[in-house]
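Hi D.,

Good news: the full-assembly prediction came through. Inputs first.
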Amino acid sequence: MNYEAVIGIEVHAELSTDTKIYCSCANKFGGEINTHCCPVCTGMPGTLPVLNGKVVDYAIKAGLAMNCDINKNSKQDRKNYFYPDLPKAYQISQFDLPLCKDGYIDITVDGEKKRIGVTRIHIEEDAGKLMHDVTPDSSLIDYNRCGVPLIEIVSEPDMRSAKEAEEYLNTLKAILQYINVSDCKMQEGSLRCDVNVSVRPVGQKEYGVRSEMKNVSTFSGVLRGIDYEINRHIEILEAGGVVEQETRRWDDGKGISVSLRSKEDAHDYRYFPEPDLMPIIIADEKIEKLKNELPELPHIKRDRYMEQYGLPEYDATQLTTLKATADFFELVIAAGASPKAASNWIMGDIWRIMNEKYMLIEDLPFSAKQLADMIALIDSGTISNTAAKQVIENMFETAKDPAVIIEDLGLKQVNDESEILSIIDTVIEQNPKSIEDFKGGKGNVAGFLIGQVMRMSKGKANPQTVNKLINEKLAKL
Amino acid sequence: MSIEKLTALEIAAKIKNKEISATEVAKHMVSQAVKTKEETGAYITVTEDVAIEQAKAVDEKIANGADLGPLAGVPFAIKDNICTKDILTTCGSKMLYNFEPPYDAFVTKRLADSGCVLIGKTNMDEFAMGSSNETSYFGEVKNPHNHDCVPGGSSGGSAAAVAANGAYFTLGSDTGGSIRLPASFCGVTGIKPTYGMVSRFGLVAFASSLDQIGPIAKDAADCAAVMNIISAYDNMDSTCLDIERPDYMKSLENNIKGLKIAVPKEYFNGADEDVKTAINASLKQLEEMGAIVEEVSLPVTDYALAAYYIISSAEASSNLARYDGVKYGYRAENFDNLSDMYFKTRCEGFGDEVKRRIMLGTYALSSGYYDAYYKKAQQVRSLIKDAFTNIFAKYDVIASPVYPTVAFKRGEKTSDPVKMYTGDICTVSANIAGIPGISVPCGFGKDNMPIGLQLMANAFKEDVLLKTAFAYQQVTDFHKGI
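Then the structure:
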């Protein structure tokens, strides 16, 4: 039988506000253990939460960027459960009135567009972190992360493969980074996923029984976990078994999921409205203002790059995944470079060198204008492409203007035909065997000779001119 | 007359006029507090060192000619569920037997900044759950008028301390009557302000949507003076109202001519004759002073008690979940694993009444029962609010008993929780509706025990309550005390 997977994902994204959601502690990753916490975020007796307005703004922005309706009358609720990393023994979250609902994210998989529904986005507080390996017979708790603001983005069960899930997560991450509400640093736990997977025979309308993998902290873990679960479910069904509704944990090291608890053991969170906080009332003007603050979003930008600049989809996607890259690219074009040349240089040598140096595009030592100048110098024939590679390397080192570097390194292209001819003559003189071969109709002598000329000119001879003159020369033999 | 019998404003005037130093008063009142603690159990902690230090600072300021607040140098005490920095704050529970908060409650700070002198922390029903002050881990409190009787709860220590002249005024907290009831049983004056008038920051939560801090004192004028200090906007409490507050001292006018008083007949159902007699006499007195008194009906009162016990227990079950032995307070000594530590800590750390309410509240919030209990109770809450709104469209004040009886005997109701709960019938509605209520001594009943008249007004109308109580106390002596 052929099966179809049904996948829904809940993404928890830490918001990059300056302070925590209910107190004035710094919202900062790292730091000495238990130094970014206070009586409020550790839930000491008598303390009360006060909502950070920025958290609401950020969540609404995310909602607008994901085409959600904004609930103008929203509230916060308590989710009650015991765990040592949760000092109040309840998490302040949102239950039946999330800030944002009924949105979607458009993704493209293998050239096909698909719309993934976003059920809801709500705000909540993060918990602390348990440390099990510091002391032998007890666990310690770091409350620094307690009260860090989160949004939970819940998708509809609209994905059908790990590939679609990957696209959904990449697009979602790009959006959050674009609107500058989360740094999305997976290695710091800024993005975490709960993944729901079920399978059903192709053509069946009803969903199969789902399993949920909690708290997967890498995208690759999500994708491998999905494939693992799909296979596990199919194997159970093929063997005539029944999939159990349960919560599972993804063990990334072993590449397997293991059962955490069954449906019967599911928590009753006893949600009820948080009496320490007032309802969240959102004015139309606020929504309008936040809407106006939204930048052009990545998929729209990508489509525009394809249409306006004629870039291939691959280039357009790569350049728009990070807003900083797209911003830089657009500045290079604004400074006069052709889009394709700008794209080639950014995605080619610049990314290669950035990777070697573990550098972000924001940290480039030279400006977009300087890169555009260099491309102009290639277009005008002042330097060859080969020389330009040296110029770029040097720009990373010195941040000097390309014209100055060309001067310093003597990379200026030789276009003068008589100068090139004299080099060609020397090369022919030094390679009598090649000429013999040519006369004997053997091999690609022209290519070899061009290479020799370029070498002798230290790459400065204009390759087109060399090509033309060599061919003329050989024709006359 | 010994100085402990003076009112807060009277002793403040003497200190201001340098008839007596704040330090002398503090020393005397510390010894009074110690005596009260021994005799009635009203105190959990007496803070002698803090008191002397604060009093000396006041004396220094007076010597330097500083203009201090109207209660500067006045010794007072705080209910033990209101946080005092580095001073034991137990909530009357084994669970917090060793808890010293690293912060002050908003009200604690306001009073310290006004030069009031903290002499101790008062006993209370465990986590403010109780009507008799018999559930404290630190022992029950005795009524100063008769040691065989309860002082009322849950702010029993706060009311008993004032009645026994062991403090000039105290702070209590009122979730369903916990200021008004002990004030009534102990013959002192106590006001529960409108929800949101006084910051709850630093008040250890029982039921967040009902809790409110208020003063207990010898008379309405002292209550007004304390209200002027503690009622202020605080951005650390999201439910604290950012509105202009009146000068309550200025509202103390001896004139209630034309004041319209509604008397809901449902509040007298089941009241003892001695209580009815005293309340009716006080209503007559108010009429003689120019008030217009009319009987009204508030049928929704019948549902108030059920709604109150569901909402307050539900919120409590969540608020008290943080006491798990992980971070502070009591932790069971021997346990096998995490859930065993939770289980034993909470079994051993909480008393029976607290456990009963946690179970009640947990049940009311459980999936499948939420709609039938919690949601229904919230709907009743809306109805009660509406009913009060309708009454206050026509009347300035609602008058009723505080409690159907005078103070009952210790141990009399401890075996029957429901009987204990039903006594709160007259007080819970003010909390459910979020309106202010005051208990004013209005007579003595069986065994010469004090009786309190409850006055309630529309939200933000504390000034009307204080004025009415003040005027009444100009012509009566019931508040004069022991």
